[in-house]
Amino acid sequence: MLGLVKNSLLSTVEAWPYRLLSKGEKDQVTYEERAYEGGRFAAVELVGKPFDEASKEGVLKLLKYVGGSNDKGVGMGMTAPVSMTAFPAEDGSYQQKVKVSLWIPSEFQDNPPCPIDESIKIEERQGMTIYSTQFGGYAKEAEYVSHAARLKAALGSDAAYHKDFYLCNGYDPPVKLYGRRNEVWFVKE
Protein backbone atom coordinates (compact mmCIF):
# COMPACT_ATOMS: atom_id res chain seq x y z
CA MET A 1 0.00 0.00 0.00
CA LEU A 2 2.90 2.35 0.72
CA GLY A 3 4.11 1.86 -2.87
CA LEU A 4 0.66 2.82 -4.14
CA VAL A 5 0.57 6.03 -2.10
CA LYS A 6 4.17 6.95 -2.94
CA ASN A 7 3.66 6.20 -6.62
CA SER A 8 0.47 8.23 -6.97
CA LEU A 9 1.50 11.22 -4.86
CA LEU A 10 5.25 11.61 -5.04
CA SER A 11 6.41 10.27 -8.38
CA THR A 12 6.64 12.20 -11.59
CA VAL A 13 3.96 11.52 -14.17
CA GLU A 14 5.00 10.48 -17.67
CA ALA A 15 2.65 11.58 -20.45
CA TRP A 16 1.52 9.20 -23.17
CA PRO A 17 3.41 10.54 -26.26
CA TYR A 18 1.42 12.25 -29.01
CA ARG A 19 1.64 14.83 -31.81
CA LEU A 20 -0.77 17.73 -32.04
CA LEU A 21 -2.29 17.76 -35.54
CA SER A 22 -4.75 20.63 -35.33
CA LYS A 23 -6.87 22.82 -33.05
CA GLY A 24 -10.42 24.00 -33.53
CA GLU A 25 -13.22 25.87 -31.83
CA LYS A 26 -16.94 25.95 -32.50
CA ASP A 27 -19.86 27.03 -30.31
CA GLN A 28 -17.49 27.78 -27.40
CA VAL A 29 -16.03 24.26 -27.52
CA THR A 30 -12.28 24.10 -28.00
CA TYR A 31 -10.94 20.81 -29.32
CA GLU A 32 -7.75 19.26 -30.66
CA GLU A 33 -6.88 16.53 -33.11
CA ARG A 34 -3.93 14.43 -31.89
CA ALA A 35 -2.01 11.35 -33.04
CA TYR A 36 -1.02 9.03 -30.18
CA GLU A 37 1.72 6.40 -30.32
CA GLY A 38 0.88 2.74 -29.97
CA GLY A 39 2.36 0.63 -27.22
CA ARG A 40 1.59 -1.56 -24.26
CA PHE A 41 -1.19 -0.81 -21.80
CA ALA A 42 -2.38 -2.26 -18.53
CA ALA A 43 -6.16 -2.65 -18.75
CA VAL A 44 -9.00 -3.97 -16.62
CA GLU A 45 -12.61 -4.39 -17.72
CA LEU A 46 -15.48 -4.13 -15.25
CA VAL A 47 -19.05 -5.15 -16.08
CA GLY A 48 -22.32 -4.81 -14.19
CA LYS A 49 -21.46 -1.68 -12.21
CA PRO A 50 -22.29 2.00 -12.79
CA PHE A 51 -19.58 3.99 -14.58
CA ASP A 52 -18.38 6.01 -11.57
CA GLU A 53 -18.08 2.94 -9.32
CA ALA A 54 -16.44 0.79 -12.00
CA SER A 55 -13.96 3.47 -13.07
CA LYS A 56 -12.91 4.11 -9.46
CA GLU A 57 -12.36 0.38 -8.87
CA GLY A 58 -10.42 0.01 -12.13
CA VAL A 59 -8.19 3.00 -11.43
CA LEU A 60 -7.35 1.63 -7.96
CA LYS A 61 -6.38 -1.75 -9.45
CA LEU A 62 -4.08 -0.09 -12.00
CA LEU A 63 -2.51 2.19 -9.37
CA LYS A 64 -1.67 -0.88 -7.30
CA TYR A 65 -0.13 -2.55 -10.36
CA VAL A 66 2.15 0.37 -11.28
CA GLY A 67 2.83 0.93 -7.57
CA GLY A 68 4.49 -2.47 -7.21
CA SER A 69 1.75 -5.12 -7.15
CA ASN A 70 3.43 -7.02 -9.96
CA ASP A 71 5.72 -10.04 -10.36
CA LYS A 72 8.85 -7.88 -10.10
CA GLY A 73 7.61 -5.91 -7.07
CA VAL A 74 8.70 -2.71 -8.81
CA GLY A 75 7.07 0.70 -8.65
CA MET A 76 6.97 1.86 -12.25
CA GLY A 77 5.82 5.44 -11.82
CA MET A 78 2.57 6.92 -13.03
CA THR A 79 1.52 7.83 -16.56
CA ALA A 80 -1.25 10.09 -17.75
CA PRO A 81 -3.95 9.99 -18.71
CA VAL A 82 -5.88 7.17 -17.10
CA SER A 83 -8.42 6.27 -19.79
CA MET A 84 -11.86 4.87 -19.18
CA THR A 85 -13.59 3.50 -22.27
CA ALA A 86 -17.29 4.31 -22.05
CA PHE A 87 -19.95 2.57 -24.11
CA PRO A 88 -22.90 4.94 -24.59
CA ALA A 89 -26.48 3.69 -24.68
CA GLU A 90 -29.11 5.11 -27.06
CA ASP A 91 -30.01 7.88 -24.59
CA GLY A 92 -26.35 8.95 -24.14
CA SER A 93 -25.97 7.40 -20.68
CA TYR A 94 -23.38 4.66 -20.25
CA GLN A 95 -23.87 0.92 -20.38
CA GLN A 96 -22.61 -0.94 -17.31
CA LYS A 97 -19.31 -1.85 -18.92
CA VAL A 98 -16.09 0.12 -18.45
CA LYS A 99 -12.52 -0.58 -19.56
CA VAL A 100 -9.92 1.32 -17.56
CA SER A 101 -6.43 1.49 -19.06
CA LEU A 102 -3.06 3.06 -18.48
CA TRP A 103 -0.11 3.45 -20.86
CA ILE A 104 2.82 1.53 -19.38
CA PRO A 105 5.81 3.84 -18.64
CA SER A 106 8.40 3.95 -21.43
CA GLU A 107 11.08 2.29 -19.26
CA PHE A 108 8.87 -0.82 -19.04
CA GLN A 109 7.27 -0.80 -22.53
CA ASP A 110 9.51 -3.58 -23.91
CA ASN A 111 9.13 -5.90 -20.92
CA PRO A 112 6.28 -4.89 -18.58
CA PRO A 113 6.02 -6.65 -15.23
CA CYS A 114 3.15 -9.14 -14.98
CA PRO A 115 0.24 -8.01 -12.81
CA ILE A 116 -0.47 -10.01 -9.67
CA ASP A 117 -4.17 -9.15 -10.07
CA GLU A 118 -5.37 -11.56 -12.78
CA SER A 119 -8.13 -9.17 -13.89
CA ILE A 120 -5.45 -6.81 -15.26
CA LYS A 121 -4.33 -7.62 -18.80
CA ILE A 122 -1.32 -6.27 -20.69
CA GLU A 123 -2.45 -5.23 -24.17
CA GLU A 124 -0.53 -4.20 -27.27
CA ARG A 125 -2.36 -1.37 -29.05
CA GLN A 126 -1.84 0.41 -32.35
CA GLY A 127 -1.46 4.17 -32.50
CA MET A 128 -4.63 6.21 -32.91
CA THR A 129 -5.82 9.65 -33.90
CA ILE A 130 -8.39 11.31 -31.66
CA TYR A 131 -10.53 14.41 -31.27
CA SER A 132 -10.26 15.77 -27.73
CA THR A 133 -11.92 18.39 -25.58
CA GLN A 134 -10.69 19.38 -22.13
CA PHE A 135 -12.44 20.46 -18.94
CA GLY A 136 -11.62 20.86 -15.25
CA GLY A 137 -12.97 19.73 -11.90
CA TYR A 138 -13.69 16.28 -10.51
CA ALA A 139 -15.23 14.43 -13.47
CA LYS A 140 -17.94 11.85 -13.10
CA GLU A 141 -20.28 10.23 -15.61
CA ALA A 142 -22.53 13.31 -15.92
CA GLU A 143 -19.62 15.62 -16.81
CA TYR A 144 -18.18 13.18 -19.35
CA VAL A 145 -21.60 12.71 -21.00
CA SER A 146 -22.11 16.49 -21.16
CA HIS A 147 -18.69 17.22 -22.66
CA ALA A 148 -19.03 14.33 -25.13
CA ALA A 149 -22.32 15.84 -26.36
CA ARG A 150 -20.66 19.24 -26.72
CA LEU A 151 -17.70 17.76 -28.66
CA LYS A 152 -20.08 15.82 -30.92
CA ALA A 153 -22.01 19.03 -31.69
CA ALA A 154 -18.80 21.00 -32.33
CA LEU A 155 -17.40 18.38 -34.74
CA GLY A 156 -20.66 18.14 -36.67
CA SER A 157 -21.58 15.37 -39.08
CA ASP A 158 -18.43 15.58 -41.25
CA ALA A 159 -16.01 14.13 -38.70
CA ALA A 160 -15.57 10.34 -38.94
CA TYR A 161 -15.07 8.71 -35.54
CA HIS A 162 -16.27 5.63 -33.65
CA LYS A 163 -19.77 6.17 -32.25
CA ASP A 164 -20.05 2.97 -30.19
CA PHE A 165 -17.44 4.02 -27.60
CA TYR A 166 -15.30 6.96 -26.50
CA LEU A 167 -12.59 7.60 -23.94
CA CYS A 168 -12.99 9.51 -20.69
CA ASN A 169 -9.57 10.61 -19.43
CA GLY A 170 -8.28 11.86 -16.10
CA TYR A 171 -4.83 13.35 -15.61
CA ASP A 172 -4.65 14.12 -11.88
CA PRO A 173 -4.49 12.25 -8.57
CA PRO A 174 -7.57 12.63 -6.35
CA VAL A 175 -5.68 14.82 -3.86
CA LYS A 176 -5.11 17.56 -6.46
CA LEU A 177 -7.77 20.13 -5.67
CA TYR A 178 -7.19 22.87 -8.27
CA GLY A 179 -6.24 23.00 -11.93
CA ARG A 180 -7.58 19.52 -12.65
CA ARG A 181 -7.56 18.22 -16.24
CA ASN A 182 -10.08 15.84 -17.79
CA GLU A 183 -10.71 15.09 -21.44
CA VAL A 184 -13.19 13.29 -23.68
CA TRP A 185 -11.68 11.59 -26.74
CA PHE A 186 -13.44 10.41 -29.89
CA VAL A 187 -11.27 7.93 -31.82
CA LYS A 188 -11.09 8.62 -35.56
CA GLU A 189 -12.10 5.84 -37.90
Automatic annotation (TrEMBL):
GO terms for molecular function: heme binding. It is found in: Cytoplasm. It holds the Pfam family SOUL. It comes from the Eukaryota. Transmembrane segments: none annotated. The keyword Phosphoprotein does not apply. The keyword Heme does not apply. InterPro entries: Reg_factor_effector_dom_sf, SOUL_heme-bd. Keywords: Cytoplasm. GO terms for cellular component: cytoplasm. Monomer. May bind free porphyrinogens that may be present in the cell and thus facilitate removal of these potentially toxic compound. Binds with a high affinity to one molecule of heme or porphyrins. It binds metalloporphyrins, free porphyrins and N-methylprotoporphyrin with similar affinities. Belongs to the HEBP family. This is Heme-binding protein 1.
